[in-house]
Specification:
Radius of gyration: 30 Å
Distance between the termini: 89 Å
Order of helices and strands: EEHEHHHHHHHHHHHHHHHH
Strand order of the largest sheet: 2-1-3
Number of strands: 3
CATH architecture of the largest domain: Up-down Bundle
Strand content: 5-15%
CATH class of the largest domain: Mainly Alpha
Structural class: mainly alpha
Number of domains: 3
Length: about 400
């Protein structure tokens, strides 16, 4: 069934606008006529279907709503219907409406979420599926609400910390553009009469000329270059090599590994304590961790566990993860209390991840300043050396 917007007249000739639900346009025309209206225009309403994955904040709201309403005894379909009515955004309202329709047809919530083609991440689908199997969907949704709330807070914190470096980068770009288009050309007029110029100076002259006289072509060229780089970086082999390189960068790699270890610990803890089987938990955690190279490492760990290797030994084989994680899992296996041990381990790594994120962000500012200083030094030398030669020749 679809909705059709219509313009019609009643028997008195008064114009009426509205929406009519029907299987197709012909049925909409017939329904309007049978209700005593004379349709003039009928047009199908195109739904604004969401294609992008839900953000952490939206997943928090969704999980909280499901958890609170299910735990208070509200039927699941009714809970999603209430969520749909409360939502103001058209794309999210349509999303919840589709899920509600599937629930009425007897589909499980996790299946309805999975059918939305990537809008919901594998983590929340796996948790909800385990909750449905064990009859504690409300508790599973509550754990996901806590998980995504923490994720959202961390991202907001990092976004706030990145405000100054981004502002600094914009100022640097604007200053360089002004330098190349307004200031340097004044010097280049002097250099035109000189027979020999350093290669660095010639390069600056070409760049300045391109930016001044061919700026539209430069914009198109830059756009094409960005598109090509984006395409190359999304090739699986390149992604794998890039993500591996990031893990082994001096200083920064250590911080990134700490953040990825914390993300794995938090995700695996949520899944395992929520009743998701170990192999599935490892697979989902490997997806959520957000590093293509690490994803391949987890694929090997899953195979090891399938072949009878202890979970702690399989995790210890992933050298990029903090070794304390494997130690915590080993203690939990020996004590028969992986759940409680994972809680402690995940909380510990959460603190380490926050510290690592702060260090990475603190590193961004001096790196940008050093790069700016090197660039300014290059420009100064490229300009001052010919100027010095010019005055030397005059003398």
């Amino acid at each position: 069934m679809a909705y059709f917007e219509y313009v019609a007249k009643d028997i008195s000739g008064k114009s009426i606008r509205g929406k009519q639900k029907a299987a197709d346009e012909n049925q909409a025309w017939n329904e309007l006529r049978s209700s005593g209206l004379f349709p003039i225009k009928v047009r199908e309403v195109r739904n604004k279907n969401r294609k992008r994955p839900l953000k952490a904040a939206q997943l928090t709201i969704f999980s909280n709503a499901v958890s609170s309403m299910v735990l208070t005894g509200i039927p699941l379909a009714q809970a999603v219907k209430l969520l749909c009515h409360r939502e103001k955004r058209a794309d999210l309202k349509e999303l919840y409406s589709r899920i509600y329709s599937m629930l009425l047809q007897g589909t499980e919530l996790s299946e309805a979420m999975e059918a939305q083609e990537g809008i919901f991440p594998p983590l929340i689908i796996g948790m909800f599926r385990a909750g449905e199997a064990e009859g504690n969907l409300g508790e599973a949704a509550g754990k996901m609400a806590v998980y995504y709330e923490r994720e959202n807070k961390l991202r907001k914190k990092m976004g706030t910390a990145m405000t100054y470096p981004i502002f600094l980068l914009i100022v640097i770009a604007a200053a360089l553009l002004l330098l190349f288009t307004q200031i340097l050309p004044e010097f280049f007029h002097i250099f035109e009469s000189m027979e020999t110029l350093p290669a660095s100076t010639r390069f600056l002259m070409i760049a300045s000329n391109m930016l001044t006289n061919y700026y539209l072509e430069m914009i198109l060229l830059l756009t094409a270059l960005i598109a090509v780089i984006y395409w190359i970086l999304n090739i699986p082999a390149v992604q794998n090599a890039r993500d591996r390189l990031i893990l082994y960068l001096p200083f920064a790699g250590t911080q990134v590994r700490a953040i990825l270890t914390a993300r794995f610990a938090r995700t695996f803890r949520s899944l395992y304590t929520g009743g998701v089987p170990v192999l599935e938990s490892l697979g989902i955690a490997g997806e959520v961790i957000g590093n293509e190279y690490m994803k391949s490492r987890f694929a090997h760990a899953i195979e090891d566990v399938k072949n009878g290797t202890a979970l702690s030994d399989a995790i210890a084989g992933i050298k990029e993860l903090d070794y304390e994680l494997a130690v915590g899992l080993y203690i939990g296996e020996e004590a028969g209390a992986i759940d409680s041990m994972m809680d402690q381990t995940a909380d510990s790594f959460e603190e380490k991840a926050e510290t690592a994120a702060e260090r990475l962000l603190a590193l961004a500012e001096p790196v940008m300043i050093i790069m700016l200083a090197a660039l300014i030094g290059y420009i100064m030398l490229s300009v001052m050396v010919p100027v010095y030669r010019y005055y030397q020749a005059m003398g």
